Fold this protein.
Amino acid sequence: MDVTSATPPTLAAGAGAGAGPNASRRPAPPAARATPAREHLIEGFLFLCGALSILTTLGILIVLGYETAGFFSEVSFGQFFGDTEWTPLFADKHFGIWALVSGTVLTSAIAITVALPFGLLSAIYLSELAPRQTRRVLKPLMELLAGVPTIVYGFFALSVVTPALQTVIPELAGFNALGAGIVMGVMIIPMISSLSEDALHAVPQSLREAAWGLGGSRLAGIFQVVLPAARSGVAAAITLALSRAIGETMIVAIAAGQQPRFTFDPRVPVETMTAYIVQISMGDVPAGTLEFRTVFAVGAALFLMTFAMNLFAQRLAKKYRRLG
Amino acid sequence: MQTRERLFRILCVSCLALPLLMLAYLLGRLVVDAWPRLTMAFLTGFPSRRAEDAGILPGIVGSLYLILLTIALALPVGVGAALYLEEFGQRRRLAQLIEVNIANLAGVPSIIYGLLGLEVFVRFMGLGRSLIAGAATLALLVLPVIIMSTREALRTVPDSLREAAVGLGATRWQVVRRIVLPQAVPGIMTGSILAVSRAIGETAPLVVIGALTFITFLPDGPTAPFTALPIQIFNWVSRPQAAFAANAAAGILVLMVTLLALNAVAIYLRERMQRSHR
Amino acid sequence: MNTPAANGRFEVTDLDAWFSKKQVLKHVELALPARRITAIIGPSGCGKSTFIRCLNRMHELVPEARLAGRVLLDGADIYAPGVDPVLLRRRVGMVFQKPNPFPTMSIRDNVLAGLRLTGAYDRGRADSVVETALRGAALWDEVKDRLDEPGVGLSGGQQQRLCIARTLAVEPEVVLMDEPCSALDPIATARIEDLMSELKARYTLVIVTHNMQQAARVSDRTAFFLDGELIEVAETNSLFTSPQDRRTEDYITGKFG
């Protein structure tokens, strides 16, 4: 063992690819190399493409952080977190984020209540019960639901679903959390369905067979063995869908109203965090003013909420992948 | 089959069918509402204060420009990033960081991208409320979609082909350029179409960066102010008069037909790809 | 045999190889003479594929793979600093277990793939390169009228010969074959074996095989690997008739593996 040092060197990167720890210690006469500078240039360019995603994240953090810091130099945390009224455009200004958070939570909760049973049962059917042929037809159809632009859903919520609901609940306002929430639920059904189906699919067939071998019925197998085994994956699906609902904008901006109020009554107009951002953007608020900065403070709160949920969902998803 | 299982099966099928039927009903009503407004004058007209005179041409043209610019910006970068992650950087910690980061970006609400675009493209880079600022914002938004579907496509290229090429003395880039990319083209195209159909219906980020709602001219370059199909629809949806609701329905129909056509192409490509790789 | 003029002679000294923590080759010492066929035999997982992948530096492409030791090709260390593995692989060609013609390319383009990939493509010479390589791989007569059809349309045996032609077109000095017949039927196997005997006039051949009869039929020398160690190497006849090591004897008489 005379050429290389006693500890075996890592050759993974290879001198030819020109990267890695060895590259710098391996100068070579240019004539001996088939790997021209072009190769390094290309790899560098590809790396920059990948790095752009990091820059995007940094950009989001800086933009939100900078403007939010400006916001909090004028408004105290107490005013932001300790108030339930949100009236930054009025003479009597209040900055209680809870008025917007409650609108967001209310519409998202309605959405998930609608989407969870539909999405989960669809997933069980597609993964456990449907014949292969049926599955091949139904899966893309479900994806169609997710492909409809949210502005279209917003139009439906306002012009079809709310009037229909008003025939049953006469006191329902023209803009309300209920109609918007239900339609948002329909929008996230495919998300819950397809992610849950992946989780169910990852449960080893041997577990099902073991359940059947013990004399369990198909249903018992599904509910006592398959679903519990896939529970972290299903939980990840629900979390991601919820995060999607929280960040959803156009449906609620169109159909839920623009009246920030701290309430959990689904029949009255509310305003979500996203709808507030749209409302201000549609108006003519000059950059640099406090009113302008409220948009970023709300955006930062929204970002933190969805980011936390996405991270949590990724944790959960990792767990079920390890199991599968 | 047990009765209980049969009942459960029926329940499941209804859970699947109900939302689909609801969508079908809504689309049916949409066609009925939109039909009377869907005239040539509507498609080639400019916005107007009077609903019956209003047209959607600036929206269609704006969306077209916007999408072309978006894809021109996002496709090379997205494919490049996917190539870096799949073919070049797998073993490096930085690549793993980028990978996690992309997964996170895919979950960021689109309106947040609007805020990013407003500050970075519109204000900081001084592009103003222009087509190019809108396209750059949308490009960042669809980048994760393109990256993820391109990676998927790259993974379907069997390693044996890479090995064969390496065994013949090809450099990494030669392997990628001559062997891997040609095979991954259908997958990359599917991803691009998905990205386009995502971008074409996006409204919130464009509202935030300040697309105009009332525009009586067509954009004459990338730095021109613009409107887009969904923005136009949003504007009509927000009007209380019923006549504008019919306009909104007609606009939505145009949008949906475009999307359906795009998706049909994407599904066709996917099927073809699956057949050729079995 | 080892005349100085003949190129493509390998000398491997004290070669160790790892996949992350697992050592898959231990202190291998082996010389591979030029213009002869050396067969590498041994049970699955004994390190024989890893060994030949160290000869064209493809082992290092696997993440976590490492190696130490010295591999000399015509007296020059292929792991020396400044040696470009890409250039090395043009001198040391490789044929893989499963035929892997490039699916988007015609027969002709497959043969030319190596030249095109590496930028050594010369339009004027293309026709003669294709014919020479295909003749060299004993495929010319079967495909000369349909060079523009896709390479994947050929039978398994023809595909493998196409892969050999593709390797020959780069004009290597050594051809490594990693169980080249394991995916083929007996008739196709026989044709490839005939081809190997023809090829040794011009190339150094190293063939990994799990088929002892094949090693006995085609090779001049045979090396027996077990658990990452080289147990025995000898002229093929003597290895199969009078193995020196007990483990070799057990293996060739079918006691394990």
Notes: The radius of gyration of chain B is 22 Å.
